[in-house]
Amino acid sequence: MRITRMLAIAALTFGSVAGAQQGPGHHKKVETQADLQKEAKLSMADARAMALRTVPNSKIEAGEIEREGGKLIYSFDMKVAGKSGIDEVNIDAISGKLVSNKHESPAAERAEAKADAKAAKAAKAKP
Q1: Entry pTM
Q2: Is the dihedral of CA 16, 22, 23, 27 positive or negative?
Q3: Left (φ > 0), alpha (ψ -120 to 50) or beta: where does 71 sit?
Q4: Which tops the pLDDT comparison, 32 or 40?
Q5: What angle do CA 89, 95, 96 make, to 5 degrees?
Q6: Domain boundaries, position 93
Q7: Which CATH number belongs to the domain containing residue 46 in this structure?
Q8: Residue 19 and residue 61 in one domain
Q9: Domain count, the chain
């Protein structure tokens, strides 16, 4: 029992070190917001201002920088008073161009949040 537990701890330790490396056969390194921000040519403040211009009379409920589809983007969830759902605005963090602006109904928003939570749980469970 004790040896099994020690092996499990060693496997977890090795797995987390190996997972931090990049390259063939290795897990991708988890990039933090700060890591991604260092790569961006556009500041978060400028991206926020652009998002607010893109969806007039809105308020930013959430915003982050992320890598999606191979692109480094700022993603903002925008709420317009009196309108159900949210508008999701994505801005290229390198070029500063608008990538997308789409409206999500409350049901689509819940489905996306559920899928994101499931993906995060699966990523956390991988060694």
Answers
A1: 0.66
A2: positive
A3: beta
A4: 40
A5: 40
A6: 31-125
A7: 3.10.450.40
A8: no
A9: 2
Cα–Cα distance for residue pair 4/23, rounded to 1 Å: 30
Residue 28, pLDDT > 80, answer no
Q: Does 114 lie in the same domain as 64?
A: yes
Segment 63-70 mean pLDDT:
93
Q: How far apart are CA 30 and CA 85, in angstroms?
A: 30
2 and 49 share a domain? Answer: no
pLDDT in tens, 73-100: 999 999 999 999 999 999 999 999 999 9
Whether residue 38 sits in one domain with residue 22: no
* The pair of three-digit structure tokens given for residue 36, joined into one six-digit string: 């991604």
User: Which residue would you say has higher pLDDT here, 2 or 111?
Assistant: 111
Residue 27 pLDDT grade (very low, low, confident, very high; cuts 50, 70, 90): low
Residues 48 and 24 in one domain: no
Q: Are 47 and 77 in contact (CB under 8 A)?
A: no
